[in-house]
TrEMBL record:
It comes from Arthrobotrys flagrans (Nematode-trapping fungus). Belongs to the protein disulfide isomerase family. CDD domains: PDI_a_MPD1_like, PDI_b_family. GO terms for biological process: response to endoplasmic reticulum stress. It comes from the Eukaryota. This is protein disulfide-isomerase. Coiled coil: none annotated. One of its GO terms (cellular component) is endoplasmic reticulum lumen. InterPro entries: PDI_thioredoxin-like_dom (IPR005788), Thioredox_PDIA6_C (IPR057305), Thioredoxin-like_sf (IPR036249), Thioredoxin_CS (IPR017937), Thioredoxin_domain (IPR013766). It is found in: Endoplasmic reticulum lumen.
Length: 449
């Protein structure tokens, strides 16, 4: 049979067109997006995501492909590296919604409040290293830092649900551990304990670090993990006690975990929690206030006017759940602050409560932009300050001035020391994000703690 070459070429073009349309193959580590799955995979995800809006014919897109796939491989299980073909008619509506005018355009989606992610253009280097370095910093941190002062409150809260605790030499949560907490967001509470918290280690019978254990909830004994400190294995272990927030249940057929052979892994019932006076003391003059805080971090609660007083719920949230266990809180009426102070700390005359955490010794402050009545938002804010994972603003110089309030420093407020930021120690050969420029020879996958 003689084949007409023109007909063969035409048929080949038709049959191969769908395969050539997308730039990334089905085996690519890059998550493939369409207009149909964009909201589910990106907008509703608890994970941070980077999305490339591209066209298959674009030369710059083709040049980016190797580095982008290397970044996706590196961030597997930690964050999402995704792409959407804007040349596909079915996807043009989505690309238009995000104002895509050139290719490739890379945007970063980070989970935000009320289920709405924050979106920003990626302006970093278009290399595997550049994308990985930036995306690692965007991983949400839902890991609670526990110490001897906060362990009782941590154990009492949500006692019927599972809690996972990592005992480690590190001062901050690793990308792997933060990603694990995101996987089980809402079903398992994750915490981290420094090795120097000897009282807490003794409470749980921990004799070496790293040690990872899960408290199933209620009166069930804690179970110590004895596998490798890698994401996939730890994910399956935690999945024995609760289902992940997203995706299919993990190890559902192994709901009942074996108890540790060491009986000391069980946490004894914590002592009854005392009742505290929820009164937040009035701040003295600014000069005396700074002297009171000394080298500590203090939190200033600014009320809008003399007619406003904190509600009982707000006082309870601030003082019992936060001030007593972390930093001393003081309140002051905004009308007693000078215009210079209001401007210097980015305060405004509104009908809402405003908070500023500040270190007089180190000369910085941190702004709180959440809901003053939200216990969960306050906890996240406090944890970020403790772990040094929040932007600090330099305190501007102020001239000394007389204040209408008492000049005496407050003596009855607890003043815990400011947590020191330390460089995390290595517990085993670390797999770091590659520091060399592209091409990346071996892209580590952050798969170990």
């Amino acid at each position: 049979m003689v084949h007409n070459p023109v007909v063969v070429a035409a048929l080949s073009a038709v049959l191969l067109a769908p395969l050539a349309a997308g730039m990334y193959s089905s085996n690519s580590p890059v998550l493939q997006l369409t207009s149909k799955n964009f909201a589910e995979k990106i907008l509703k995800s608890n994970h941070a995501s980077v999305v490339e809006f591209y066209a298959p014919w674009c030369g710059h897109c083709k040049n980016l492909k190797p580095a982008y796939e290397k970044a996706a491989e590196n961030m597997n299980g930690l964050a999402q590296v995704a792409a959407i073909d804007c040349d596909d008619d079915a996807n043009k509506r989505t690309c238009s919604e995000y104002g895509i005018q050139g290719f490739p355009t890379i945007k970063v989606f980070k989970p935000g409040k009320n289920g709405k992610p924050s979106i920003q253009d990626y302006q970093g280097q278009r290399t595997a290293k550049g994308i990985v370095d930036f995306l690692v910093e965007q991983i949400p941190n839902h890991v609670t830092r526990v110490n001897s002062k906060t362990v009782d409150g941590f154990l009492n809260e949500k006692n019927e649900t599972a809690k996972a605790i990592l005992f480690t030499t590190k001062g901050v949560a690793t990308p792997l551990y933060k990603a694990l907490a995101v996987d089980f967001l809402g079903s398992v509470t994750f915490a981290q304990v420094r090795d120097k918290e000897t009282e807490v280690l003794k409470l749980f019978g921990v004799e070496k670090v790293p040690t990872f254990l899960v408290l199933p909830g209620g009166t069930a004994e804690g179970v110590v993990y004895d596998g490798e400190m890698k994401k996939e294995a730890m994910l399956k272990f935690v999945g024995k006690f609760a289902e992940p927030a997203t995706g299919k249940p993990v190890a559902k057929d192994e709901k009942k975990a074996e108890s540790s052979s060491t009986s000391s892994s069980s946490a004894p019932p914590p002592p009854p929690r005392p009742t505290f006076d929820p009164t937040i003391p009035e701040a003295p003059s600014l000069e005396a206030f700074a002297a009171t805080c000394g080298n500590k971090i203090c939190v200033l609660v600014v009320t809008p006017d003399s007619a406003h007083t904190l509600t009982a719920q707000e006082k309870t949230n601030f003082y019992i759940n936060h001030a007593r266990q972390t930093f001393p809180f003081f309140q002051v009426q905004g009308s007693k602050l000078s215009p210079e102070f209001m401007k210097g700390f980015a305060l405004d005359k509104t009908d809402r409560v405003q908070l500023r955490a500040l270190s007089a010794k180190r000369g910085w402050y941190v702004e709180y932009d959440g809901d003053s009545t939200s216990d969960e938002e306050l906890k996240i804010w406090i944890d970020k300050i403790k772990m040094g994972e929040i932007r600090k603003i330099k305190i501007p110089p102020f001239e000394k001035e007389e204040s209408a309030t008492s000049p005496e420093p407050v003596k009855d407020a607890p003043a815990p020391e400011e947590p020191a930021k330390e460089v995390p120690k290595e517990e085993e050969p670390a797999k770091e994000v590659p520091k060399e420029e592209e091409p990346v020879k071996e892209a580590p996958k952050h798969e170990e703690l």
